[in-house]
Design a protein that fits this description.
mainly alpha
Length: about 150
């Protein structure tokens, strides 16, 4: 009886480990996500671009904390680029506008928090990114709430 429990426990543990590896293998890299944009339908592109921007936002935050400013700047550039693409695709397709606006607002908040941990020199590109994200957000809001003709 003890032998069966022991074997069963190892079998369950093995399945859990395989499932964990399978989940990890299914998470695409940022580069894989970038390469999928061109082959994705117009209505799905805003979501994919926001996902890329969010992943790069987390990476930029991590790199700034690790004092790797050059790499963080590259990730920050991706954040801005892909939020702007998400805005453009979202406005074109009239899809994912609200979710994109919420995601951009959250990224802007995180960048504002990040500026408090950086030196004056390091803040310059982050503040520029904040301005550009605010413009993206304004554009999304304007497209969602257009004034009707009276």
């Amino acid at each position: 009886m003890l032998g069966r429990r022991f074997t069963y426990s190892w079998m369950v543990l093995g399945l859990v480990a395989l499932a964990a590896v399978g989940v990890r293998a299914q998470v695409p890299t940022v580069e894989q996500m970038k390469s999928r944009i061109a082959s994705t339908t117009l209505r799905d592109r805003p979501k994919l671009c926001i996902q890329i921007a969010q992943r790069q936002m987390a990476e930029a935050d991590r790199l700034y904390v690790a004092a790797e400013d050059e790499k963080a700047g590259a990730a920050l550039t991706d954040v801005v680029t892909y939020t702007e693409l998400a805005r453009d695709y979202s406005i074109q397709s009239h899809k994912y506008q609200k979710q994109a606006e919420i995601a951009v607002r959250e990224m802007t908040r995180k960048l504002n928090e990040l500026t408090h941990t950086l030196s004056q020199e390091e803040q310059v590109p982050v503040r520029d990114a904040i301005k550009r994200l605010e413009k993206v957000r304004d554009d999304l809001l304007a497209s969602m709430f257009t004034k009707g003709v009276k």
